[in-house]
Structure formats: C-alpha cells, structure tokens
Amino acid sequence: MFKIIRRILQVLLLLAIGAFGYWLWLHPEVLKPAARLYREGEAKVKEVLNAEQEQKKIIGEVSGRVTRIYSGDAFQLTDSTGVFNWRLSGILAPEMPAQRTSAAQRTAGDTSREFLASLIVSNTVRIAVLHTEGVQASDGIAYVGTNNVNLAMVAAGMARLNERLAHVLPLEIRRVIEKAELEARTAKLGIWADGP
Question: Do both 64 and 52 map to the same domain?
C-alpha cells in the first residue's frame, strides 16, 4: 500500500516538474530577471577577484626622506636601513639633458625634476612598492601624506602615463592617472604646452 502511494507521489512530482519546465519553455520572459541577476552576480564575482589581483600588485611599503632627485620620475630615499633609489611606477617624465650647451638652457626635464623636488624633497614619503630588484631597480607609487605623487606629476603635465609599463599599476590608480593625463593634455599643461 505504502509502495503504491509512494510511486504515485513520485509520478505526480515528475509530472509537476515536467509541466513546470514546459510552462517555463513557453514563457521564457519569466526567467529574464533571474538570468540578469545571475549575470550581475557573475560580474560582481569577477570584479572582486580582479580587485584581489590588483591588490596583489602592491608587494610592500617603505617610507623615508627624499634626499636627492635624479629626474622627474626618479629619486633617492633614505630610511633607517639605508639609501635606496626609486622610480615612480607607470609614469614617464621628460629626459634630463646629458649635456648642456649653456648654463641658461632649460629643458622640460629640468622643469619636471624641479616640480618633483617641490613635492617630495625633505618630506617623509611613503612608497607602495610594486617592483624591486635590489637598490638599483625599485619602483612604486609615492605618497606624501595621502597625496599620490605619481598622479600629481601627470596632473600637472610634468610626466605622462608610460603605456609600456602602465600594467604594473593597480587598475583604479591607472584609470585616475589616464584621466589626469587627458585633462593635462586638454589644458596644455607642462609637457603638453607645445602640443601632443
């Protein structure tokens, strides 16, 4: 008796599932909100995973005082453990002249170097380290307080985004720097004064 009732309930359940499936097949618009939610959830998961990957780009943090400026994107930092050379990641400042023909000759490289000096010399600078190969090849994102020095250089038109190395920057920072470069170009600031 119980076996028969159980078998009847199983058949009814299968018929109900089949009927529901057929009804969904006839009315696919019912599933569109669920499909949209699924896609949004999937996009959100990808966004979170990408954010985690971006955070992994920052491998450490150091801070110290800037004691020397080499160019608009390179400087010397002194901390309690020694003296280290740093480069601002993802940006490219104009080159310093290898040789001057006269003392009065100024270049975009000189202007960029002086601007960087005005931002960081004798200040405590914090660097979010993105890459290091010892003393000679370290690079990162420099901060004076909460101000992003890499961004400030680009926003003032004293440097540009280095397309070849922009991938080393966390995505959010790279987007902000791209926007700042576009605004500096449009306003013809610094290196953009004479055109692109």
Answer: no
Looking at residue 99, its pLDDT comes to: 61
49 with 92, same domain: the answer is no
Q: Is 20 exposed, middle or buried (0-12, 13-18, 19+ CB in 10 A)?
A: exposed
Rounded CA-CA distance 125/119 in Å is 10
- Same domain as 65, residue 24: no
Question: Does 101 map to a domain?
Answer: no
Share of the chain above pLDDT 90, in %: 35
Report if residue 31 sits inside a domain. yes
Alpha helix locations (H) across 27-166?
32-56, 108-120, 149-155
Q: How far is CA 9 from CA 21, 151, 174, in A?
A: 18, 68, 61
**Coil, helix or strand for 66?**
strand
- Domain enclosing residue 22, as ranges: 2-56
What are the DSSP E strand ranges found in 33-185?
Answer: 60-71, 74-79, 82-88, 91-92, 124-131, 138-144, 147-148, 160-161
Residues 46 and 76 in one domain: no
Q: Tell me the per-residue pLDDT of 40-65, one tens digit each, with 9 for 90 and over.
A: 777 776 766 666 555 567 788 889 99
- Provide the pLDDT for residue 1: 76
* Domain count across the chain: 2
The pTM (predicted TM-score) of the whole model is 0.69
Q: How many other CB atoms sit within 10 Å of the CB of residue 193?
A: 11
